[in-house]
Amino acid sequence: MSIKVPSVTSRRLNQIPPSGIRKFFDLIVSMEGVISLGVGEPDFATPWHIREAAIYSLEKGYTMYTSNLGMLELRRELSRYLKDTYNLDYNPESELLITVGVSEGLDLATRAILDPGDEVIMPDPCYSAYNPCVILAGGTPIMVPTNEENNFELAAADVEARVTNKTKAILIGYPANPTGAVMSRDKLAQIAEVARRHRLVVISDEIYARLVYGVEHTCFATLPQIKESTILLGGFSKAYAMTGWRIGYAAANKEIIAAMTKIHQYTMLCASIMGQVAAIEALKSGEASTAEMAEEYNRRRLVIVQGLNDIGLPCFEPRGAFYTFPSIKGTGMTSEEFAEKLLMEEKVAVVPGIAFGQCGEGYIRCCYATSLAEIEEALSRMGRFVSKHKK
Ligand SMILES: Cc1ncc(COP(=O)(O)O)c(C=O)c1O
After folding, report:
1. pLDDT tens across 62-75, in order?
2. Band of pLDDT at residue 1, cut at 50, 70 and 90
3. For residue 17, is pLDDT > 80?
4. CA distance linking residue 329 with residue 308, whole number of Å
5. Which residues contact 82 (CB under 8 A, 6 or more apart)?
6. Does residue 15 surpass a pLDDT of 90?
7. CA–CA separation, 227 vs 213, rounded Å?
């Protein structure tokens, strides 16, 4: 007779479902011939000169811990980059922290500022880690619906309507995962105005800043009188095809960076030195490779958006990141049914929109960081699938 052992996992953790993305990708590994428009990562290897810099550093014996904040040389390069790109001043000694990807940056930022019960306002749909990060930090996520009719932009009035005396922060990420939406400077300025009026911190995840097509990226911290209360999160995973190196950064005022560093020093200690050396090289001379990759993503973006519209999956035009978010409402299926059936019948992997929030239902996320040939084959298989299942 088996004895029932009481659950030992925390109640807080039990509030969080497992990632809706990973669930699918565990399934795919056992299948052959699958085209994946699933996981959001570049199909390029890290540019050679960046890999080479890291290899050379290993040859020289750079295999130790770095300062908790990250290598000073990297923080200096980053400070220069933020100055050159956005005309923002961050002191490399006290206002920049190198993190283990933006993932760690999100975890640290939420844990550093939240007390139990504090509310964090964020758009729905949004990147699947935002909601869990807030819950794990003891906070309460407050979702603001966004929709296709408004290009999945977050409206300042909708944010303000949800501010209570428990609201501590707004968490946004533009260009957006999963929709590819980019917000204009004016609309972001309206959100900054709400944040200022209610003295809220803004966590701005700008991991896709370098991947915009025909529009300008606005760095949130450049908006009037908002830098002091903004935690800018950035990283190397997407722009430099460096997902495996696990390097990101946080830029914020001294007090916030000190608080984030306090957690980081006990939990991570530091980001890997190899990754940091690679990031220095990326900042020093990665610009041309980034521009080349962005151009290629743009070519694929045009093909996939047109293709999805042609096969009857209407798709608003994403202006950033490397995702499209077509509507599947015409098929009458839920996004999970659609993704599962598409995988089983046509061997194309996409992510159900529901994995990104309630407002993602009725949509799927297709990542176009894969070759044009694969995109075209995926479109042809999806076209067949949609014709078969159209209501
Ligand atoms: C919006 C967003 N933020 C953060 C991350 C995590 O990135 P990193 O590899 O820097 O941890 C991702 C990865 O997909 C993302 O899409």
Report:
1. 999 999 999 999 99
2. low
3. no
4. 13
5. 88, 89, 90, 251
6. no
7. 25
Ligand 1 centroid vs 241 CA: distance in angstroms?
Answer: 12
Task: Determine the pLDDT at residue 16.
Answer: 86
Mutational pocket test of ligand 1: of 122, 207, 212, the residue with most ligand atoms within 8 Å of the beta carbon? 207
Return the structure tokens found at 215.
């529009």
Which ligand 1 atom lies nearest to the CA of residue 246?
9
Query: Roughly what angle, to the nearest 10 degrees, separates helices 254-267 and 101-113?
Result: 110
User: From ligand 1's centre to the CA of 103, what distance in Å?
Assistant: 6
- The residues near 158 (Cβ < 8 Å, ≥ 6 apart) are 144, 145, 146
Interval between CA 237 and ligand 1 midpoint (Å): 7
Taking the CA of residue 100 as reference, the ligand 1 atom at the shortest distance is 11
Residue 140: C-alpha distances to residues 10, 25, 255 (Å) = 16, 28, 23
| 201-205 vs 230-235, strand pairing mode | parallel
Which carries the bigger pLDDT value, residue 11 or residue 88? 88
The single-letter code of the amino acid at 2 is S
The rounded Å distance from CA 255 to ligand 1 centre is 24
**Candidate of 19, 106, 127 to mutate for ligand 1, largest count of ligand atoms within 8 Å of Cβ:** 127
